[in-house]
Write a structure and sequence with these properties.
The structure is a single chain. The chain is 19% helix and 13% strand. By secondary structure, it is α/β, with parallel strands linked by helices. A three-stranded parallel β-sheet has the order 2-3-5, covered by helices on one side. 22% of the residues are buried.
Length: 126
């Protein structure tokens, strides 16, 4: 689709289904643009891995559009207009043009929390 091959800004959402997280990350990273992506999950480990492995300047976790508020930078990677292909216009990234930033916006529902608390004690050998 042309809307997947070109970077367009507007009321357009491209949704592509894949079977695994690895396929999703590979598909995203293979694109020549790196403006924004989102993932919906209840698994914190999956979200963390996606956040770290994906090559996009704006990452949404459980939010449909990962557009940051003005206190964050408008970030992008690769040929994205918001990345090295253009200029960022909020805050420090305007000065650090050649640095690739990643902004992560996430939402976690309290209902998704596990009832048991994580252990905070230091593991020791017996």
């Amino acid at each position: 689709m042309t809307c997947y091959k070109e970077e367009i800004f507007g009321p357009v959402l491209v949704c592509i289904n894949v079977d695994t997280l690895e396929e999703a990350v590979d598909l995203i990273n293979a694109n020549e643009y790196g403006n924004g992506v989102s993932i919906f999950t209840r698994d914190g480990a999956t979200a963390s891995r996606f956040q770290k492995d994906v090559e996009a300047g704006q990452v949404g976790i459980n939010v449909p559009i990962p557009v940051p508020l003005p206190m964050f930078s408008f970030t992008g990677n690769k040929k994205s207009v918001a990345g090295n292909g253009g200029s960022t216009f909020y805050g420090k990234p305007g000065l650090n043009f050649y640095t690739q930033y990643k902004t992560v916006t996430s939402f976690w529902s309290g209902a998704d929390a596990i009832a048991t608390r994580a252990s905070t004690s230091m593991p020791t050998q017996s």
